[in-house]
Amino acid sequence: MKKIYAVAGAAVLTLALGGTAEAGTAAAGGHGRVTTPTLTGWASLPAGTFVLGSEPSGAKITGNTNGYSVPFADQPIQGFSGIVKNRDGSFDVLSDNGYGNQANSADFLLRIQRLTPAFATNTVDVVGGITLSDPDGRVGWPLTRPDRVLTGADFDVESIVRAADGTYWIGDEFGPYLLHFDRAGKLLAAPIPLDGVIAPETAARTGVPATTNSSKGFEGLAATPDGRHLYGLLEGTVNGDVAGQLRLNEFDLRTQQYTGKRAIYQLESPANAIGDAIAVDDNRFLVIERDGGQGATALFKRIYLADKRDRNRDGVLDKTLLVDLMNIANPRRLGGFGETFTFPFQTIEDVVILGDSRIAVLNDNNFPFSTGRSATAADNNEWITIELPQPLLATR
């Protein structure tokens, strides 16, 4: 299987806007008002893309690897689970925790990739990145590696925002924890737990009984435009809560403590999960909600506009369907697809606002396992832009 190598290290490139993400999406979105969500850009990063000169990974992977031999000689660039837009047209994209669980992910290094989609050529360029680490010993329990570089056996990172000071806040699922990193990827403080919510991975380490299922922590993390609060949305229901109801927890960035306030997001089905949650303004969020299907079994992949003001007073966030990702108009047949474009991936975990009526969505390809486009080939990481028929009126 062909491998593609990308730049290694922590380099941050200053990019000319010509041909970058902003220019590409602006051109793609500049065709006038649409009447239904419409595909305006499509790009793809091949599944077998690796960080050149990194280190081996995947030694404990088992099962069908869809033609890829393990272990890999280098770290894969895969599994996108959160995204931040940069001013230069690039994006910081959070790689997932590895290969699905703690047992097989100890040699997967947690990393923020810096990427630039080029929609004119349907490609994605890897222009840099940073590896996450804890050199100051902020984590109070043993880590996998003596050099304190963080791995997929230490944390399951699933969501990311950048604060006004340039530092990163990342949501984890093994705690669940909030993790605060500087611009170079160094952990700045001890992991911050969420009272009353204990994942099985933390339960196994501490002996405190779990209150939620594995991989059901902070799948969504939103920062309000005023820079005051974070909102962490759990992927799964906490034991004792109503089935299909997810807690949205408010965190004060000034005090770096939870405020005790929370709202409730109601899934359309208890079997569904959320893939991401980002802020539109101080009250509204974009939330990806999905089923667990892929390919022919992918039926429910949607983005909702959720409002915590609860205008109908039913105790849950007000929801309005924004985009059905299985039914996107594609009049230009972008990507070689038909006039109706579908995004049939098991996990879709990234949404970012590009403009008042334009968003981008990325999948998590669970490399090398997911097979949403072909039953026999590992999924690529696809990057799409969508023009909306109505403006979001987002706080900029």
Keywords summarizing the entry:
396 residues; mainly beta; Tachylectin-2, Chain A; 4-stranded antiparallel beta sheet; 2 helices; 4% helix; Glycerophosphoryl diester phosphodiesterase; signal; Phytase-like_dom
Structure explained in plain terms:
This protein has 396 residues and is mainly β. The protein has one domain: Tachylectin-2, Chain A (5 Propeller), CATH 2.115.10. Helices cover 4% and strands 37% of the residues. The chain contains 2 helices and 25 strands. The strands form 7 sheets. It has a 4-stranded antiparallel beta sheet with strand order 2-25-24-23, with helices on one face. The chain has a 4-stranded antiparallel beta sheet with strand order 5-6-7-8, with no helix packed on it. β9 and β10 (168-172) form a beta hairpin. The longest helix is centred in the first third of the chain and has 8 residues, at 21-28. The protein is globular, with a radius of gyration of 20 Å. This is Glycerophosphoryl diester phosphodiesterase. Residues 75-367 form the Phytase-like domain.
